[in-house]
Design goal:
Layout: H1 3-21, E1 23-32, H2 42-55, E2 62-65, H3 72-83, E3 87-90, H4 103-117, E4 123-127, H5 138-150, E5 154-155, H6 164-176, H7 183-209, E6 215-220, H8 223-238, E7 241-244, H9 246-249, H10 269-276, H11 290-302
Parallel strand pairs: 1-2, 1-6, 1-7, 2-3, 3-4, 4-5
């Protein structure tokens, strides 16, 4: 057997092993078309985000959209995502908290969004509950489950939770105050925080499912997403993750799981599974704590760097 043949066999074995055992993750963005009056305006955010996804070979993501924001600019922004091949899905009309409305009020809001968002060619009947809250009573929870089924909708759960929206608020407030943000440090902070949460929830899944499912990452359509999504994708791939489409992610068996517990506050699908297994603590990782994030932001982004430790 020749040396080159042996090398080829070893290389093929390595590639097959990587393909079989790499962890999988789909990317989704909530709240589109989200307000844009800070670092980027809406069209610039969309253009930057679309380019970043294309440049980093992310085939498709999903934008869970709030139809109340469909003014002329909002429609154009969603159309640009649609025309780039990405999915447009339902995130209600006005982004209400189901815990604060009756089932009838919440249902009407959901149906209004269904009607307005159906104008987009890539619209899918996927619904993500705002704040991930699915009902603080059994009647609300089961009523929404029935309504989704009646209208042919999928419950577009997430498995990987984070507070990227709070990181965005820290970033935008610093820009507003004319602070000099080092974008390299900002990127490292963003990627580090998100990876910390991703790996935590994947470990939680391994504990309770004894496997790593096809994950669904919750992000928001924001400026920091447009600026740093490429860096996050690079880091994921470097750590052995494979980027898949949301449609592929929702073929996982975990998509059929429904918790029996009425949850006023929902930690996401992995948290629901953990609760079913008896876990009551550690459902919200520390990266979902505003004080923790603010302290890290001040230390890792705003503080003067120690030049002796900088690359």
């Amino acid at each position: 057997m020749s040396y080159y043949y042996k090398i080829s066999v070893l290389l093929l074995s390595y590639l097959l092993s990587f393909a079989l055992f790499s962890k999988e993750i789909a990317i989704t963005f909530d709240d589109s078309p989200r307000g844009a009056s800070g670092y980027f305006d809406g069209p610039t955010r969309a253009k930057t985000l679309i380019k970043a996804l294309k440049d980093h070979k992310v085939e498709q993501v999903a934008f869970f959209s709030v139809s109340k924001r469909l003014d002329d600019e909002g429609i154009k922004r969603l159309k640009s995502y649609n025309d780039a091949g990405h999915i447009i899905a339902n995130h209600t009309h006005s982004h209400p908290d189901i815990n604060k409305l009756s089932l009838d009020e919440y249902s009407a809001d959901f149906l209004k969004a269904d009607k307005r968002l159906s104008q987009f060619d890539n619209f899918e009947k996927w619904f993500r509950f705002p704040y991930l809250r699915e009902g603080d009573t059994k009647d609300k929870r089961d009523g929404m489950r029935s309504l989704l089924y009646e209208h042919g909708y999928r419950n577009a759960y997430i498995t990987l939770n984070n507070y990227d929206w709070y990181i965005e608020s820290l970033f935008q407030e610093s820009i507003k105050q004319s602070m000099n943000i080092d974008m390299d440090r900002m990127s490292r902070f963003y990627v580090s925080v998100l990876m910390e949460g991703i790996e935590y929830y994947d470990e939680l899944a391994e504990k309770h499912l004894e496997r790593s499912p096809k994950h669904v990452l919750l992000l928001h359509e924001m400026d920091i997403s447009a600026l740093f999504i490429g860096d996050l994708v690079d880091e994921l791939r470097q750590r052995g993750w494979k980027i898949i489409t949301p449609e592929e992610a929702y073929t996982d068996d975990i998509a059929h799981f429904e918790t029996d517990t009425v949850l006023k506050f929902n930690p996401g699908r992995i948290g629901e599974v953990a609760i079913g297994k008896g876990q009551r603590k550690g459902l919200w990782h520390k990266t979902l704590d505003e004080k923790y994030l603010q302290q890290r932001f001040e230390q890792e982004v705003l503080s003067k760097p120690n030049l002796s430790n900088e690359n």
